[in-house]
Amino acid sequence: MAQHLELGRTGEALAKTHLENSGYEILDENWTHGKAEIDLIAYKDKVIIFTEVKTRTGNGFGEPEDFVDDRKQKLLAQAADEYIYLMNHQGDVRFDIIAILFDRNKNYILNHIEDAFWPSAT
């Protein structure tokens, strides 16, 4: 398996464990709609949380969360709209980012950014 794919899967597993340990219920993983994929969809306190996980081995080009650009946010919003429709969810939603940064010794820092963005209308 390509190293970047393995790193991404490791990050998603860490993010899922973090959410579960924080009292979130995981509804879906790697949910796709069109060209968009939502890494983790969680539920807590009557809120659906759409979570983008970004994992990096360095921050020379920016922090992991910096890679969730406007284009990615719009794709996530489109997929989230479809998910909300399919689940007939009438409550609140939120978009979070979980940024995971590994060092050379495979230690990591996990940064859960709640309500990280609100996508603009498409």
Termini Cα gap: 35 Å
User: What's the CATH C level?
Assistant: Alpha Beta
| Total discrete domains | 1
Structural class: alpha+beta
Number of helices: 2
Overall number of strands: 5
Radius of gyration from CA coordinates: 14 Å
Instruction: Indicate the mean pLDDT.
Output: 91
The largest pleated sheet is described as: 5 strands, mixed
CATH architecture descriptor text: 3-Layer(aba) Sandwich
Q: Which bin fits the share of residues in helices?
A: 25-40%
Shape: globular
Instruction: Give me the CATH fold name.
Output: Trna Endonuclease, Chain: A, domain 1
**Order of strands across the widest beta sheet?**
1-2-3-4-5
Estimate the strand proportion.
Answer: 35-45%
Q: What low-confidence regions span 5 or more consecutive residues with pLDDT below 50?
A: none
Order of helices and strands: HEEEHEE
Structure write-up:
With 122 residues, the protein is α+β, with helices and mostly antiparallel strands. It has two helices and five strands. A hairpin with a 2-residue loop joins strand 1 (25-33) and strand 2. The termini are far apart.
Provide the descriptors you would attach to this structure in a database record.
30% helix, Trna Endonuclease, Chain: A, domain 1, alpha+beta, globular, five-stranded mixed beta sheet, 122 residues, single chain
Compact summary:
With 122 residues, the protein is an alpha+beta fold. Helix content is 30%, strand content 37%.
